[in-house]
Design a protein that fits this description.
Number of helices: 6
Shape: globular
Radius of gyration: 17 Å
CATH topology of the largest domain: Oxidized Rhodanese, domain 1
Distance between the termini: 33 Å
Number of domains: 2
Length: 167
């Protein structure tokens, strides 16, 4: 998983760096490198992940009661999947729409943000982007536990039999 996250970080910065080469600005290039260094320095020992069991134990109770003002849970799956089931009081922002201005405005910089997706890969990529923008983000490792390969079992939210709601 460590190599996967590092690979994603490198790809993101290569893309950003490529777009900056077009402008040929050394200052912009240094800003990207500065962002990358800042991201790496702020990376926690847990790589900014939380297990579903730890999220359930430490955060779900206040989320279920809808009283928590210290964090939000963002489900980054598509709206159809979200309608079928999701964690109570989570909000849905599809990962491809996450960086749109209207969606970034929904994400407070003064609260912890948890991201969840099918199996955790997409939320880890989204986490890197949001962290580079200054958000306090943690990815729920293994997500809902819905592997694209039915032969591969993932210990996600569903496999732990944690509560879900549907619309």
């Amino acid at each position: 998983m460590l190599l996967f996250v590092l690979f994603i970080v490198i790809i993101i910065f290569m893309i950003i760096n490529n777009s900056m080469k077009k402008s040929k600005s050394k200052k912009e290039s240094c800003d990207v490198l500065s962002l990358a260094r800042k991201y790496i320095q702020k990376t926690q020992k847990d790589w900014n992940y939380i297990l579903p069991s730890d999220f359930f134990k430490n955060y779900y109770g206040s989320l279920e009661k809808s009283v928590n003002k210290d964090f939000i849970l963002v489900d980054i799956r598509d709206s159809v999947s979200f309608s079928n089931f999701h964690i109570k009081n989570s909000i849905n922002i599809f990962w491809l729409d996450l960086l749109k201005d209207e969606n970034l405005k929904k994400l407070p910089k003064n609260k912890k943000i948890f991201l969840i997706c099918y199996v955790g890969h997409t939320s880890s990529q989204a986490m890197v982007l949001l962290k580079c923008l200054g958000y306090d983000v943690t990815s729920i490792k293994f997500g809902y536990g819905i592997s694209p390969d039915p032969n591969i079992k993932v210990a996600g939210w569903i496999q732990n039999n944690y509560p879900l709601v549907a619309e």
